[in-house]
Design brief:
mainly alpha, 1 helix
Length: 75
């Protein structure tokens, strides 16, 4: 038997904010807005908070060209 708060004068509804809503409220009250850094022209720039999943972020950069032949490569 559900309680209908519109008909029951003793029924009370309590609404609590979610933790994410509380964090947003605290940030707004403190004035610490999340600002994004300016976008750079480097296509290889990655976010500082990117997950460390073992991916080498520099592996997608093309390798520097090396000479095909060197007369004495050990000196």
């Amino acid at each position: 038997m559900p309680i209908d708060p519109r008909k029951d004068p003793h029924a009370r509804i309590v609404v609590k904010p979610l933790p994410s809503q509380q964090a947003k409220g605290r940030d707004a009250a403190a004035g610490s807005g999340h600002l994004r850094p300016a976008a750079s022209g480097d296509p290889f720039v990655r976010a500082e908070n990117e997950d460390d999943d073992g991916y080498d972020p520099y592996s997608d950069r093309p390798a520097e060209r090396e000479p095909l032949f060197s007369e004495d490569p050990w000196n």
